[in-house]
Specification:
mainly alpha, Potassium Channel Kv1.1, Chain A, three-stranded mixed sheet, about 65% helix
Length: about 240
């Protein structure tokens, strides 16, 4: 059964986008870092309970007809306002989704939060791993956080970004750093549990040196082990210099 024509909302959405793009009868100015945007109170209030409260009570925003969003760049703010009007491109969304996630949380826009959560979870990689981990910790995104911790610790991605990880240990959110270091300790204990034989080996006399011509006289360097040792040293340096 086809959808009744009077329920089609394409033209309505197009009209809202045109109102924003052409500044038709705007009545509020949204100030961001680097510029401002003219918008409509009614649209902002309909999409955000926070904006609704601002414009319904005798607050500064109502009196001055301005809203200051001092923690967003003008480009990210334009994408945010565009989203509220149903007029944001995929390119804009992807470019500013971390700031959009923060804005969705701050202004109570649940559908924006949901879209951003899924998007930042779908393309986690080594390059953005620590950023996404901090994002997950800040906004309580449990699924994203589990994914990041698993990649970082269980899959050893921290050994692939030793400088970044050392800087994270040194200057990152200390609650989060402590949590990650604890996860690393638990993982190492699970992978290398102490055994009777290993304890006995550690207390026995050292093995004799390799004889001339043996394969051990010129061993091939264990590159993963060297990388792990380098990372550990960087982490220790970061902890000492905190």
């Amino acid at each position: 059964m086809s959808r009744p024509i009077w329920r089609t909302s394409t033209e309505a959405q197009s009209g809202l986008a045109r109102m924003l793009q052409e500044g038709i009868l705007t009545d509020i100015t949204v100030n961001a870092v680097g510029g401002s945007i003219r918008a409509h109170r009614a649209v902002l209030a309909a999409r955000s309970p926070v904006f609704l409260s601002m414009f319904s009570h005798d607050l500064r925003e109502k009196q001055l007809s301005t809203v200051d969003i001092s923690d967003m760049s003008i480009d990210a703010c334009r994408a945010f306002i565009g989203y509220l009007y149903g007029d944001v491109s995929e390119e804009e969304f992807l470019a500013h989704r971390c700031e959009l996630l923060a804005a969705g949380d701050k202004y109570g826009v649940g559908d924006l939060m949901k879209a951003c959560k899924k998007s930042v979870r779908d393309d986690v990689c080594t390059e953005n791993l620590l950023e996404r981990l901090q994002l997950a910790h800040t906004y309580g995104l449990s699924t994203l956080k589990k994914t990041c911790v698993k990649l970082l610790v269980d899959f050893g991605k921290m050994y692939e970004i030793p400088e970044d990880f050392a800087e994270f240990v040194k200057s990152g959110d200390q609650e989060l750093v402590g949590e990650i270091m604890e996860k690393i300790a638990v993982f190492r204990g699970r992978m290398f549990p102490p055994t009777t034989s290993s304890v006995m080996a550690s207390t026995s006399s050292p093995a004799p040196p390799p004889t001339a011509g043996s394969s051990a006289s010129n061993p091939e360097p264990d590159r993963p082990a060297l990388l792990r040792r380098s990372t550990r040293l960087k982490i220790q340096d970061a902890q000492i210099n905190k």
